[in-house]
Amino acid sequence: MSAARQAGPLVSICVPAYNAERWLAEAIESALAQTVADLELVVCDDASTDATVEIARSYSDPRLRVESNPVRLGKSRTQNRVIELSGGRFVKFLHADDRLAPTCLEEMLALALEDDRVGLVFAAREVEVDGDVDPSWGDQYARPHEGFTNLGRINDGRALFGQLLRGGLEENWIGEPSAVMVSRRALAGSGGFSERIHQIEDLDLWLRILLRHRVGFVDRPLCVYRRHSASMTAANQRKGRDWLDRVWLLDGLLAEELDPADREEVERLRRIALRRAARSQLGRIARGRFDAQLPAYLGHRALTLTGRGFRAPV
Hints:
Layout: H1 3-6, E1 11-17, H2 24-32, E2 39-45, H3 52-56, E3 64-68, H4 75-85, E4 90-93, E5 99-100, H5 104-112, E6 118-123, E7 126-129, H6 136-140, E8 154-155, H7 157-166, E9 180-183, H8 184-190, H9 201-210, E10 214-218, E11 223-227, H10 232-239, H11 245-254, H12 260-286, H13 293-305
Parallel strand pairs: 1-2, 1-4, 2-3, 6-10, 7-11
Antiparallel strand pairs: 4-9, 5-11, 6-9, 8-10
């Protein structure tokens, strides 16, 4: 660890942003209004074409730093870059269209500091539905953590991993990045966001952290997650960019040290995911929309089968 990072703040709030002029001010102000003083706020703009950078740089708070990618990197690469730009012992994620409650850092840090084996802390969150999104979405997905059973203040990560796995990994019971804080140590040991995954890169990272660390939970809403039709999530779903996501996620899990029963279940889920992906690709080809992700995945599988593939998420 560098001297600069050792001398860094207790927690870094990391904000990746792309064309977020409509919401960014609220996100920044919610971060700067935290009851914890020992923080930095790092905004990384992904070559926006609107006023995102100008809005971010309009704040004169010394805790705020704004960086801008010279060319667009995409969601996962920008999330990884903002983590690299930060120096806190803990990393609190905040998407540019979300908001934090004033005591979010205070409550998450209090829990994380109780036990140095805790690598991830998550909390309940409120949902704000914006624009033409079905209003019932917020009611349906308001409390994803209720998918877990016997969720306590501090939990065994592998136990939660097992529950998610037996739930089919169909939903992210931990929640979106704005509801999560992780330790720098957990990130170093588990890797960052996979740059191969378009839509569920957060679940992919949470699963890898759960395999190595204890997990804290605050049963109180500590952020507001905004669901709207202009989000990257909505764009990925409209364009079908996520058709291979589950395959990449499950392949990555098979590179981990899993219990035999868990490995068997991951292999079963991967077989299902591969069949779904094959049907999706056949449909794309029929519509004249061949996807370059397929040869990339086949190349990865060939390297894995010959023992020359690497396991780190990229």
